[in-house]
Every structure is written in C-alpha cells, then in structure tokens.
Write a structure and sequence with these properties.
Structural class: alpha+beta
Number of helices: 4
Strand order of the largest sheet: 13-25-16-17-18-15-14
Number of domains: 2
Order of helices and strands: HHHHEEEEEEEEEEEEEEEEEEEEEEEEE
Length: 460
C-alpha cells in the first residue's frame, strides 16, 4: 500500500510541475527562487574559474577594443543629438536662456509625460516651455530639485492646449488657433503607420489655407512664460476639407523621436549655472552579470536568463549589453535572476537613431519593433514606426545602409548604445504595412562581458 501511495505522490508532483510549466504562478516562482537563493550564492565563488576557461587573451583584447570604439562613437552621437535639439534661428534665442536636458524615460501611466535630467534646477519652474530644435515640445510640469529631474507635459496630451498662429502663407489678418492632443483620422486601419497629426481647436478662420503654424499666444499677458515659446514651430496645417476637422502634421515624433530637449527660461535666470550632461553609458548604473541559461524554449522566441535580479536593482525594460552593444531588454525580474528578451525576440521594441556614412548628422528613426529573424537567419526584421517624414534622397527602390544606435525615452534603455549594422527600407512593406529595417544578426553573448542596467536608487 505504501508503494502505491509513493507512486501516486510522485505522479501528483509531476502533474503539478507540468501544470506550473505551462501556466506559471508568479508568486510561487518568486517563492521558489528565494528558497533556492542560498545555492546560487554558494555557486558564485566558482564562477571566475569557469569563466576564465572559456576566455582567451586575444578575445579579451578584442572585446576591449570593440567597447572602446562603441564608446567613442556613442560620445560623438550624444554631442550631435544635443546639437540637433538646439534652436538654430537667432530670433528664437533672443531674450532667452536655454537649459539642456536629456530624456531618461516616460511616465508608465501617462505616455504624454516625459522625464528629463538636467545639471541645474535653480532657474526651472512649472510652466516653462520646452523645445527641440526650432520645434515646440510642451511645458514643465514638475521639478525634482534633489534628483535633478524634470517632468514635461507634451503637446500631444489630450488636455494640452497652446496658442498658435498661421505664418505661411501670409494672411491679411492673423489666423489664430489652439493646438494640442493627437488627431486620429476616421477610417484609418488601426495597424497602419500614419503621419503624426495634432488636433487644431477653434481656428479664427475655419477655412484657412494650409501652411506653417508656430506658437503664438493671443492672450500672452495671462501666462508669464508664454512669450518665451513665441515663434517655435508646431507643424503644417492640413488643407481645408469640409468633411474633416482641421489638423496639423507634426514636425517631430513626440512618441519616440525626442532624445534631448531645451527648457526656455527668461534671459539672465541661469547666471552662474555650471555642469555638462553626462552620457548614460558612463554612469555607475551598470552591473556585471552572466548568462545562466536560455530563456523561452520556443523555437521562434529569443531569450536568456541572467544572474542579476531585483536584489541588485534590475527592473523590467533594463538594457543588457555586451561591450556596449545592445543584446536585449529585461522582460521579467526575479529576486536573483532576470529573463531577457533578445533583439531577435518578436515584439521587442526600442527607439533608434541611424548613422549613415557620409551623413553630417544622425537620423532619428523612431520606434523599431522586432518581427524576429528572416528566413535566412542572418538578419532580424524590424517594423519601423516612421510617424514623421523621413528624408530620403534616393530612388523609390533604394535602400540605406546604416549603423543603428539606441535613442532615449524608454526607461532602462539609455541613448547611445550600439545596436548593429542595418539596411533601411523607407518604402512601405506591403505585408506589415510599414517601412522595414533589417538588422544584421550577431551573437555577442559568449564573446564579451555582459552588463545590465540597474535602477540608480538601488545601485550600491
């Protein structure tokens, strides 16, 4: 009888294991991980010996050389992106001080709120306008003096409104309007990529011709900072149609194309301000780690498990790099380990910048979403969410060869990380309904040191 009970007990245990493998219970997984954590700690002292067996002096030197090259290129990219975010027209600089800021993330509950980091907050106040180049972005919402961080409400917010006026073509009488929120055209397929448009409210002339629109507050005396944003661009007013509301084609990808901004302050308010923005790749919020095992066993998925978790500050969305090249992003975080989605994993997304040989400045791509490897296995296909116009001087069937780097705006994924060499196809792919990017598939998991991004509050 006891023999049968033993078999029944074993059968029940295996059934439970099978069910949990098919439908995991997150809290139970966390409990098991905490219970087995002492075994992991005991295994760590032997890891340097195991790692050294698989490394050579030549491989280590090659890894250092790659990291040095990527770091130098990332530094140049950071300087160029900051320059792209600087106003260029003299009239937009007159009577204003500019506070540079780097984008560090977005509000998880509100995608129309951006978080940026500055070097000095003395001159910053809620309500100050924020710009990117000659284009208006939004307003300062909150200022965190201790953390040197600022929250910005974007013009794309549904409750946002800024005064505006039509400047081109010129009109015999001023044409005023309010702009704010994202315009959704009726009848557009939900999966298609559309040019980003902003809502136009209460135009003084409903049948005004299409043309360039800039910030212009009709009642500027009500807002003490309104004059600072005067003249900054918003986009192009769509030609009048009796069947649709007026809208404005945006000049900027507010969702995935903003990496640096400038906050406008009254002239003289930044007297004595010092400090320069630092690159995220050189900050202390990185922790060395190693691969423990493969991730999802499905053949069409791409993932790994790493030996770093919530106990050292790893959070969902964090970047995993090998010698400053992006490998993937953290999807699930346990106490001592984390599951990472590789670039080849369908659905992984990132904001990106492209650098072409011969180009004087980088090109902002916006958001890329992985579709997985192609049929050859040599390339990773990405859906390119190009929601603003992309400058392309080649023919209709031409492709562009470029090096891809991360942009900013996704929490845990800093700008300037090398992603890989790619082919860009600006034309719409008929299958996915969007432009396509082919990224050369590389595997650096075993050829370099792995580092994972951690939360600054948890980094020792």
């Amino acid at each position: 009888m006891s023999f049968r009970r033993s078999h029944l007990l074993h059968l029940l245990i295996w059934m439970c294991i099978f069910v949990l493998a098919v439908r995991p219970v997150e809290r139970l997984d966390e409990g098991i991980e905490w219970a087995l954590s002492p075994l992991r700690i005991l295994a760590e002292p032997a890891w340097p010996l195991i790692w050294s067996e698989g490394q050579s002096v030549q491989a280590a030197e090659a890894a250092r050389d790659r990291a040095s090259d990527y770091a130098a290129e990332a530094e140049r990219l950071g300087v160029e992106l900051l320059a792209l975010a600087s106003p260029t027209r003299a009239e937009l600089l007159e009577g204003r001080d500019l506070v540079p800021a780097v984008v560090i993330g977005r509000d998880d509950r509100d995608s129309d709120r951006l978080f940026v980091r500055v070097t000095d907050t003395a001159a910053l106040h809620p309500g100050l306008p924020v710009v990117h180049g000659d284009t208006y972005v939004g307003r300062v919402a909150l200022v965190d003096v201790e953390r040197l961080e600022v929250a910005i409400d974007l013009v794309t917010g549904p409750g946002f409104a800024v005064g505006a006026r039509l400047v081109d073509p010129p009109s015999s009488k001023p044409i005023w309007m309010a702009v704010g929120g994202v315009y959704s055209a009726k009848g557009q397929p939900a999966h298609s990529v559309q040019r980003l448009a902003l809502v136009v409210r209460n135009p003084s002339d409903r049948e005004a011709p299409g043309g360039s629109v800039v910030v212009g507050e009709l009642l500027a005396d009500i807002d003490p900072f309104a004059s600072l944003a005067e003249g900054y661009g918003l986009g192009t007013l769509v030609e009048y149609s009796s069947n649709e509301e007026r809208s404005l084609l945006a000049d900027l990808d507010y969702g995935a194309g903003i990496f640096h901004v400038h906050i406008l302050c009254p002239e003289g308010s930044r007297a004595g301000a010092t400090g320069e923005l630092e690159l995220a790749i050189s900050d202390p919020d990185w922790r060395p780690t190693r691969q423990l095992s493969a991730g999802d066993p499905s053949s069409w998925r791409g993932g790994v498990k790493i030996a770093a978790g919530a106990s050292v500050g790893v959070e969902r969305g964090a970047a995993l790099i090998s010698d400053l090249q992006l490998i993937g992003r953290v999807e699930r975080v346990g106490a001592w380990t984390a599951d990472v989605r590789l670039l080849s994993d369908p659905g992984l997304s990132l904001v990106a910048v492209a650098r072409q040989s011969g180009d004087s400045e980088p090109r902002v791509l916006g958001r890329l979403t992985s579709l997985g490897p192609d049929s050859t296995g040599e390339w990773i296909r990405f859906r390119w969410e190009a929601v603003v116009g992309f400058r392309h001087e080649g023919g209709a069937n031409d492709v562009l060869h470029a090096r891809i780097f991360t942009g900013a705006g996704d929490t845990g994924l800093p700008a300037g990380l090398f992603v890989g060499d790619a082919i860009l196809s600006p034309d719409i792919d008929p299958v996915i309904g969007a432009p396509l990017v082919l990224l050369r598939r590389e595997s650096n998991l075993g050829s370099g040191n792995l580092w994972v991004r951690t939360s600054s509050e948890s980094t020792p």
